[in-house]
Amino acid sequence: MVRKSHFDPQRVREEIAIAAARMIAEDGLDYATAKRKAARQVVGESKVTGEFLPDNDQIEEEIREYQAIFQSDSQPAVLRRMRETALDWMHKLEAFDPYLTGAVLNGTAGEHSDIHLQCFCDNPKEVAIYLLNANVQYDVSETRHFAGRGYVETLSFLHRVRGEEPIGVHIALYSADDLRGAVRADGRGKLARANAAIVRTLLDDPDTPALQIGA
To answer: Fewer CB near the last or first residue (10 Å), C or N of the chain?
Structure first.
Protein backbone atom coordinates (compact mmCIF):
# COMPACT_ATOMS: atom_id res chain seq x y z
CA MET A 1 0.00 0.00 0.00
CA VAL A 2 1.23 3.48 -0.85
CA ARG A 3 1.77 5.53 2.26
CA LYS A 4 -0.21 8.74 2.54
CA SER A 5 2.95 10.85 2.31
CA HIS A 6 3.48 9.46 -1.17
CA PHE A 7 0.68 11.65 -2.46
CA ASP A 8 2.93 14.65 -1.87
CA PRO A 9 5.01 15.00 -5.07
CA GLN A 10 7.91 16.69 -3.28
CA ARG A 11 8.13 13.95 -0.68
CA VAL A 12 7.94 11.23 -3.32
CA ARG A 13 10.71 12.89 -5.34
CA GLU A 14 12.90 13.06 -2.25
CA GLU A 15 12.35 9.39 -1.37
CA ILE A 16 13.00 8.24 -4.93
CA ALA A 17 16.12 10.41 -5.17
CA ILE A 18 17.50 9.01 -1.90
CA ALA A 19 16.83 5.41 -2.93
CA ALA A 20 18.29 5.94 -6.42
CA ALA A 21 21.40 7.60 -5.00
CA ARG A 22 22.07 4.60 -2.76
CA MET A 23 21.76 2.22 -5.71
CA ILE A 24 24.14 4.30 -7.81
CA ALA A 25 26.70 4.72 -5.03
CA GLU A 26 26.62 1.11 -3.83
CA ASP A 27 25.79 -0.92 -6.94
CA GLY A 28 26.97 1.26 -9.81
CA LEU A 29 23.56 1.53 -11.50
CA ASP A 30 23.07 4.19 -14.16
CA TYR A 31 20.69 7.05 -13.38
CA ALA A 32 17.79 5.81 -15.52
CA THR A 33 17.85 2.27 -14.11
CA ALA A 34 18.31 3.48 -10.54
CA LYS A 35 15.44 5.95 -10.88
CA ARG A 36 13.14 3.28 -12.28
CA LYS A 37 14.00 0.74 -9.55
CA ALA A 38 13.79 3.38 -6.83
CA ALA A 39 10.35 4.48 -8.00
CA ARG A 40 9.13 0.88 -7.85
CA GLN A 41 10.64 0.53 -4.37
CA VAL A 42 8.96 3.70 -3.10
CA VAL A 43 5.51 3.50 -4.68
CA GLY A 44 5.23 -0.14 -5.66
CA GLU A 45 3.57 -0.92 -8.98
CA SER A 46 1.64 2.35 -9.05
CA LYS A 47 2.25 4.39 -12.17
CA VAL A 48 4.56 7.32 -11.45
CA THR A 49 4.07 10.50 -13.46
CA GLY A 50 6.74 13.08 -14.18
CA GLU A 51 5.89 15.36 -11.28
CA PHE A 52 6.76 12.57 -8.84
CA LEU A 53 10.18 11.82 -10.37
CA PRO A 54 13.38 13.62 -9.33
CA ASP A 55 15.67 15.03 -12.00
CA ASN A 56 19.29 13.95 -12.29
CA ASP A 57 20.54 17.03 -10.44
CA GLN A 58 18.50 16.12 -7.37
CA ILE A 59 19.78 12.54 -7.51
CA GLU A 60 23.35 13.79 -7.91
CA GLU A 61 23.04 15.87 -4.75
CA GLU A 62 21.75 12.85 -2.85
CA ILE A 63 24.72 10.81 -4.13
CA ARG A 64 27.09 13.44 -2.74
CA GLU A 65 25.33 13.33 0.62
CA TYR A 66 25.36 9.52 0.69
CA GLN A 67 29.06 9.41 -0.15
CA ALA A 68 29.86 12.02 2.49
CA ILE A 69 28.09 9.95 5.15
CA PHE A 70 28.88 6.37 4.17
CA GLN A 71 31.90 6.46 1.83
CA SER A 72 34.00 9.36 3.09
CA ASP A 73 36.92 7.04 3.91
CA SER A 74 37.15 5.52 0.43
CA GLN A 75 35.40 7.59 -2.26
CA PRO A 76 37.83 10.56 -2.40
CA ALA A 77 40.78 8.23 -3.11
CA VAL A 78 38.79 6.35 -5.75
CA LEU A 79 37.80 9.63 -7.40
CA ARG A 80 41.38 10.91 -7.41
CA ARG A 81 42.72 7.74 -9.02
CA MET A 82 40.05 7.94 -11.72
CA ARG A 83 40.75 11.61 -12.42
CA GLU A 84 44.47 10.90 -12.63
CA THR A 85 43.80 8.06 -15.07
CA ALA A 86 41.46 10.26 -17.09
CA LEU A 87 44.05 13.02 -17.28
CA ASP A 88 46.70 10.52 -18.39
CA TRP A 89 44.50 9.39 -21.26
CA MET A 90 43.59 12.97 -22.14
CA HIS A 91 47.30 13.73 -22.53
CA LYS A 92 47.72 10.66 -24.74
CA LEU A 93 44.72 11.73 -26.83
CA GLU A 94 45.68 15.41 -26.91
CA ALA A 95 45.70 15.49 -30.72
CA PHE A 96 42.00 14.61 -30.71
CA ASP A 97 40.74 17.40 -28.41
CA PRO A 98 39.57 15.19 -25.51
CA TYR A 99 37.09 16.28 -22.84
CA LEU A 100 36.05 14.53 -19.63
CA THR A 101 32.41 14.16 -18.71
CA GLY A 102 30.22 12.19 -16.31
CA ALA A 103 30.73 11.17 -12.69
CA VAL A 104 34.53 11.40 -12.77
CA LEU A 105 34.17 15.06 -13.68
CA ASN A 106 31.34 16.00 -11.34
CA GLY A 107 32.97 14.26 -8.40
CA THR A 108 30.48 11.48 -7.68
CA ALA A 109 32.51 8.62 -9.19
CA GLY A 110 32.83 5.51 -7.05
CA GLU A 111 34.36 2.06 -7.31
CA HIS A 112 31.78 0.99 -9.91
CA SER A 113 32.23 4.04 -12.15
CA ASP A 114 33.91 4.26 -15.54
CA ILE A 115 35.76 7.11 -17.21
CA HIS A 116 33.83 8.82 -20.00
CA LEU A 117 35.78 10.89 -22.52
CA GLN A 118 34.62 12.73 -25.61
CA CYS A 119 37.01 13.40 -28.50
CA PHE A 120 36.32 16.09 -31.12
CA CYS A 121 38.33 15.81 -34.32
CA ASP A 122 38.02 16.07 -38.09
CA ASN A 123 38.51 12.34 -38.56
CA PRO A 124 37.27 10.36 -35.53
CA LYS A 125 38.60 7.16 -37.09
CA GLU A 126 42.10 8.39 -36.25
CA VAL A 127 41.34 7.76 -32.56
CA ALA A 128 40.70 4.10 -33.34
CA ILE A 129 43.94 3.93 -35.31
CA TYR A 130 45.83 5.49 -32.39
CA LEU A 131 44.47 2.86 -29.98
CA LEU A 132 45.35 0.05 -32.39
CA ASN A 133 48.89 1.35 -32.72
CA ALA A 134 49.11 1.51 -28.91
CA ASN A 135 48.02 -2.15 -28.71
CA VAL A 136 44.82 -1.25 -26.90
CA GLN A 137 42.07 -3.80 -27.45
CA TYR A 138 38.73 -2.05 -27.53
CA ASP A 139 35.07 -2.76 -28.17
CA VAL A 140 32.91 -0.61 -30.41
CA SER A 141 29.43 0.54 -29.43
CA GLU A 142 27.25 3.63 -29.75
CA THR A 143 26.43 6.44 -27.35
CA ARG A 144 23.57 8.87 -27.71
CA HIS A 145 24.80 12.23 -29.02
CA PHE A 146 24.90 14.74 -26.17
CA ALA A 147 22.78 17.12 -28.24
CA GLY A 148 20.24 14.43 -29.12
CA ARG A 149 21.37 14.14 -32.74
CA GLY A 150 21.37 10.38 -33.09
CA TYR A 151 24.31 8.30 -31.89
CA VAL A 152 28.09 8.47 -32.06
CA GLU A 153 30.63 5.67 -32.21
CA THR A 154 32.20 4.84 -28.86
CA LEU A 155 35.40 2.91 -28.17
CA SER A 156 35.60 1.11 -24.81
CA PHE A 157 38.47 -0.68 -23.11
CA LEU A 158 39.92 -1.52 -19.70
CA HIS A 159 42.81 0.52 -18.33
CA ARG A 160 44.94 -1.95 -16.40
CA VAL A 161 47.68 -1.34 -13.86
CA ARG A 162 49.33 -4.26 -12.10
CA GLY A 163 48.04 -4.67 -8.56
CA GLU A 164 45.02 -2.38 -9.08
CA GLU A 165 41.46 -2.89 -10.19
CA PRO A 166 41.00 -2.16 -13.91
CA ILE A 167 39.08 0.97 -14.88
CA GLY A 168 36.65 1.09 -17.77
CA VAL A 169 37.32 3.86 -20.28
CA HIS A 170 34.80 4.95 -22.92
CA ILE A 171 35.72 7.36 -25.71
CA ALA A 172 32.79 8.87 -27.62
CA LEU A 173 33.88 10.11 -31.05
CA TYR A 174 32.50 13.44 -32.26
CA SER A 175 33.30 15.63 -35.23
CA ALA A 176 35.22 18.85 -34.61
CA ASP A 177 32.09 20.87 -35.43
CA ASP A 178 30.25 19.26 -32.50
CA LEU A 179 32.48 21.13 -30.05
CA ARG A 180 31.05 24.53 -31.02
CA GLY A 181 29.04 25.70 -28.03
CA ALA A 182 29.42 22.34 -26.27
CA VAL A 183 31.81 23.72 -23.64
CA ARG A 184 29.64 26.63 -22.58
CA ALA A 185 28.26 26.59 -19.06
CA ASP A 186 24.52 26.19 -18.72
CA GLY A 187 22.17 28.62 -16.99
CA ARG A 188 23.28 27.31 -13.59
CA GLY A 189 26.97 27.81 -14.35
CA LYS A 190 27.67 24.09 -14.80
CA LEU A 191 29.97 22.60 -17.42
CA ALA A 192 28.96 19.28 -18.97
CA ARG A 193 32.54 18.53 -20.03
CA ALA A 194 36.02 19.72 -19.17
CA ASN A 195 39.42 19.83 -20.89
CA ALA A 196 42.70 18.62 -19.42
CA ALA A 197 43.50 21.98 -17.81
CA ILE A 198 40.28 21.90 -15.80
CA VAL A 199 40.82 18.29 -14.76
CA ARG A 200 44.32 19.23 -13.58
CA THR A 201 42.80 22.06 -11.53
CA LEU A 202 40.39 19.61 -9.90
CA LEU A 203 43.32 17.35 -8.99
CA ASP A 204 45.37 20.21 -7.59
CA ASP A 205 42.43 21.52 -5.58
CA PRO A 206 39.87 18.76 -4.87
CA ASP A 207 37.64 21.21 -2.99
CA THR A 208 37.05 23.26 -6.14
CA PRO A 209 33.35 22.99 -7.11
CA ALA A 210 33.37 20.57 -10.03
CA LEU A 211 31.69 21.71 -13.26
CA GLN A 212 31.86 25.38 -12.27
CA ILE A 213 35.47 26.17 -13.11
CA GLY A 214 35.65 28.81 -15.76
CA ALA A 215 31.91 29.47 -15.64
So the answer is: N
